[in-house]
Specification:
The complex is a heterodimer of chains A (about 350) and B (about 350). An eight-stranded mixed β-sheet of chain A has the order 6-7-8-3-9-10-12-11, sandwiched between helices. Chain A has a four-stranded antiparallel β-sheet with strand order 2-1-4-5. In chain A, helix 4 crosses helix 5, helix 4 runs parallel beside helix 6 and helix 6 runs parallel beside helix 7. With about 350 residues, chain A is α/β, with parallel strands linked by helices. Chain B has a domain of about 90 residues. Helix content of chain B is about 35%, strand content about 20%. Chain B contains twelve helices and twelve strands. In chain B, helix 4 packs across helix 5. The radius of gyration of chain B is 21 Å and the shape is globular. Classes of the chains: A alpha/beta (about 350), B alpha/beta (about 350). At the A-B interface, helix 7, helix 8, helix 9, helix 10 and helix 11 of A face helix 8, helix 9, helix 10 and helix 11 of B.
Chain lengths: ~350, ~350
């Protein structure tokens, strides 16, 4: 398996624009309706899971998406892949608008846009052998050639993710969590993707295994020039793997900047609180660190606060924050912050 | 397994003194020695962090201390657990029930499943108060509301009659803490108490635990896989691997000069929030060993980059490596030497 031949595969679905971003998301919205009433069901409200998210991902770039549970990061990933049709907004993949095309026209893109899931236990079919799981995308997308070629390709993929091809005939329950995650990665690679949504790929793994998978993901990115949307709640992991990072809260992006800039110079009060809440494995440093402890829980996305959605927990919020909806404003060098106090 | 008779008469006895604890489980695949000769102690008002990856035996250690190991298949085969000088292993089940939730409180990872979904939170807190402190209904209610306020549950008087599903994850964990501290325990065991929570909520809960410990002079045993949490809150650390404590000492020493290769590797394999460069992580090759078929000698030997022939034959014991900092490794002097050499180079 060589880099060039895989890349040539990847060109087939879309007319590529070499300079443009791989992925371009504009004002993405996903609202889930809340209905009530018996016989005549009426929509009485909406859960605004994703509410106006905009970003680009360049070829070979990793955008980290961090946020607490319920912030809409997973829904954003699913809406990009059209696994969840967005309510509004646009998702352009290599210049092709995906939100308006039919499921049938979407199919060629499915192999190029892949996803790796959090739960290596729940995301693999227990009745299929590792070889079949990895080989299935090849059959579905007609990529594998005849059976011998397919088997050869599956063996290559297994080897590439650091596993013994002889394990092809084994079933998911015979593997450890880390090995299952490697199988999930091999399955995603089978389609020769140029973009992968990594949805919490290491949060179910032990730290020593986590490092192995993170290293594997960065190696694969370098080798095949894949763009990642790396979704995680662990800020340390996101900092490590991402070129740029977006911080989400209640369906909105609060702050976005390059990884170094965001962590060295966080500007949004939510980002600052989030960072100070993450303990660093260094007792001497921990004694000196500033701690911002946020009060309360994330509000319900059914009834988000008016104005800035973070204002109910914000240490510097004023009355004005309840009236003005803050836009993401560029503070130089692509460092965008949605806060009227910054 | 034989244990050395430990000296009993200490000048200042520890609050909790666990000696050579061993717990095993009978499984279909064979006997699993989940905890294998674990010794540690906690003094009054002190916070000890017990860290390790899944399957290393940290939870089984705390359950063995509380005698909550389901028997069968589990069995505590050796060791003693001295709490305020009394061996908990020798108590009757009735006496042990007075200790649990009385002088030792415990909070678990899953606030969703550790609370009874069909009882109000008020009922669940007052139940313990009735049993341990012998309070009547009115007094128990007042005390419960007072504790709920102390753990920062908003509007405790009206929350008293709420059910667990009315509360968020963080609030449920606050209720769990309220139940655990309601009878003024001397020791609180927090077993992955914040693992299921979001970071901002985790910070709230840990800060609460720390202030409660200071206020009530309570000792805290934090069991977690999160090295950051331990660095922030624990004074002393014990690192577990495959059923054994492989290194223990003051938090500062463990983090700055780890002497066991596992501790060292673990620390360099976690991505840090304050890391300036995004270089490759040093991963630990291989997987955690199968507890049914543990390798002979040191359990970490197959993954260790410092391994020598002796490691594959003889299992190292926790030996002194200066002060209270000890590591179970044959090659710890070489590791320390290499660390100093690295320091000089940079």
């Amino acid at each position: 398996m060589t880099g060039e031949s895989r890349h040539a595969d990847g060109e087939r679905a879309a007319a590529s624009s070499p300079d443009g971003p791989t992925l371009s998301v504009r004002d993405l919205q996903v609202h889930f309706p809340i209905t009530s009433g018996f016989l005549i069901r009426r929509q009485t409200g909406a859960v605004k899971a994703v509410d106006g998210v905009t970003f680009d991902i360049a070829p070979g770039e990793t955008l980290g998406l961090v946020g607490e549970s319920g912030s809409g990061k997973t829904t954003t990933g699913r809406a990009i892949l059209q696994l969840q049709r967005p309510t509004a907004g646009s998702v352009e993949f290599r210049g092709v608008e995906l939100t308006s095309i039919s499921a049938k026209k979407m199919r060629p893109f499915r192999s190029e846009m892949q996803i790796i899931f959090q739960d290596p236990y729940g995301s693999l079919n227990p009745r299929m052998s590792a070889g079949r799981i990895i080989g299935e995308p090849l059959t579905v997308h007609g990529l594998g050639g005849d059976q011998d070629q397919r088997l050869e390709r599956v063996a290559e993929l297994l080897k590439r993710v650091g596993m013994n091809p002889a394990m092809m005939g084994r079933y998911p329950h015979e593997f450890s969590g880390g090995q299952r995650q490697r199988i999930g990665i091999a399955r995603a690679l089978a389609g020769a993707p140029s973009f992968i949504v990594c949805d919490e790929p290491v949060s179910a793994l032990d730290v020593s295994i986590q490092a192995q998978i993170l290293n594997l993901l960065s190696d694969l990115q370098t080798e095949f020039n894949i763009s990642y949307l790396f979704i995680a709640h662990d800020l340390s992991v996101v900092r490590h793997i991402s070129d740029r990072v977006a911080v989400m809260y209640l369906g909105k992006i609060m702050e976005m900047a390059t990884s170094v800039e965001l962590y060295e110079n966080p500007m949004h009060p939510y980002t600052r609180a989030l960072m100070s809440a993450v303990p660093i494995p260094d007792p001497a440093l921990e004694r000196q660190r500033e701690r911002i402890v946020l009060a309360g829980d994330i509000p319900s996305p059914i009834n988000p606060p008016s104005g800035c959605v973070f204002r109910t927990r914000c240490p510097i919020a004023t009355d004005e924050c309840g009236e003005v909806l803050p836009d993401l404003v560029d503070h130089g060098g692509g460092h965008q912050v949605a806060c009227i106090k910054v | 397994m034989t244990s050395d008779p430990a000296p009993v008469a200490n000048a200042a006895p520890h609050l909790l003194d666990v000696r050579n604890l061993a717990t095993r489980f009978a499984t279909a695949e064979g006997c699993v020695q989940a905890v294998d000769g674990v010794s540690f102690h906690i003094d009054e008002g002190e916070t000890l962090g017990l860290v390790g990856e899944s399957g290393c035996g940290k939870s089984v250690t705390s359950l063995s201390v509380m005698r909550l190991i389901p028997t069968p298949p589990g069995e505590i085969t050796d060791g003693s657990v001295l709490f305020e000088g009394t061996d908990l292993q020798t108590l009757s089940e009735r006496e042990m029930r007075r200790v649990r939730g009385g002088s030792i409180g415990m909070i678990f990872q899953e606030p969703m499943t550790s609370l009874n979904p069909v009882l109000t939170i008020g009922r669940q807190i007052t139940e313990a108060l009735g049993i341990h402190l012998d309070l009547n209904k009115g007094a128990a209610r007042n005390r419960a509301i007072e504790i709920l306020a102390r753990v920062g549950l908003p509007d405790p008087a009206s929350r008293f009659s709420d059910y667990p599903h009315h509360l968020s994850g963080g609030q449920r964990q606050r209720v769990m803490i309220a139940m655990a501290i309601s009878c003024n325990p001397k020791l609180l065991i927090a077993d992955e108490a914040t693992t299921a929570l979001d970071v901002t909520i985790q910070a709230q809960i840990l800060e609460l635990l720390q202030s409660l410990c200071e206020e009530l002079r309570m000792a805290l045993l934090i069991i977690t896989h999160n090295l950051g949490v331990v660095a922030r809150y624990a004074q002393r650390v014990a690192v577990m691997y495959a059923g054994k404590i492989i290194e223990t000492g003051a938090a500062d020493e463990i983090y700055t000069t780890p002497r066991h290769p596992y501790t060292k590797a673990l620390l360099s394999s976690v991505p840090r929030l304050d890391a300036i460069t995004t270089t490759r992580l040093t991963s630990i090759e291989g997987e955690i060993p199968d507890l049914v078929n543990l390798p002979e000698g040191c359990a970490f030997a197959p993954r260790c980059r410092w391994v020598v022939d002796r490691c594959r034959v003889e299992s190292p014991e926790l030996g002194p490596s200066g002060g209270s900092h000890t590591a179970a490794c044959w090659e710890q002097d070489r590791i320390d030497h290499d660390r100093l050499a690295e320091l000089q180079q940079s």
